[in-house]
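Q: Got a minute? One more chain.
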Amino acid sequence: MILLQSHSRFLLQTLLNRLQNLEKAVELDCHWVEFDDVRFHVQVTMKNSHHFFLSVSLPTPPPEAAFYGGLPFGAIEAIKAAYSGIVQILDPPRDGFNLTLRLNLSKLPPDEEYRQAILVKIASVREVVLGAPLRVILKGLVSRTGVANIDKLVALVHRPKESYFLFPQAEKVTVVFPMRFNDSIDTVLATSFLQEFVEARRTAGLNNAPLCLWSPTPPVELEGAPAEALSANAGFATIVIFPRHVEGKKLDRTVWSLSTFHAYVSYHVKCSEGFMHTRMRRRVESLIQALDRAKPDVENSNSKKKGHNTSFKRLSLKEGRNSLK
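A: Always. Here it is, folded:
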């Protein structure tokens, strides 16, 4: 199975290209959209060619997943911690976006390896912003102190007008994903995929992996959640996170894997659908070839008929006597 990268490859490539042509005063104005309807806009003007403006638009949050100042809670603190002294947050952001950052490319460190690490971190702005609330709660799990002033059930946005839920406790955090798909075939494949996901967790080599469950009905942790948020045609996937899963460097990987879990499942569902279509096309082609081989050879059959054809001519009595002589 393939894990999605935390950084935007297109954004990273744009930053590298701009850095390589820093002395060229070339304007840049580019929009693009990535999975889960996260939109990006980068801009560089002729007047300030060293200033790189990056704007990000997040998925529209449902009513149960509240934003504070247009961003998830803890996002501003996460941005400052990740990009301290590197970027500047513009307030207010550009129209139509939740966040706008200004990066001075001329002030990046000269060390190539360190500079590359900074650019990768900037290209991971999606993870920093959308994963901020999840990171805060999981850090509380590591310290075993919890998070103050937080609801018993927390809704976090991960798709347009869709959320997943966190049920934080002192010794564990339960994460529940209502799985929704528009296509009926995707729904069937996703349900099968999630059930296999649960079975794979029970193998001996994955004893230390987070506990994974699936159910067609909402689990007990979602009691009190809005009814609109509990409509899931592919069931509910539950992942239980313990402190050992977020210790040290595991925290970043866990935050990214959880915040993109639905996209991860959708990606593999589409891959499975494409693989089955390919197998069916090959099977149909082999059947067509078998039918073609089974067809009789029309030219050979006609030539054989011509070689065995016999014609008869009625002879007169005199002609018959002459032929016998």
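A: Residues 261-294 form the longest helix (34 residues).
Q: Perfect, thanks.
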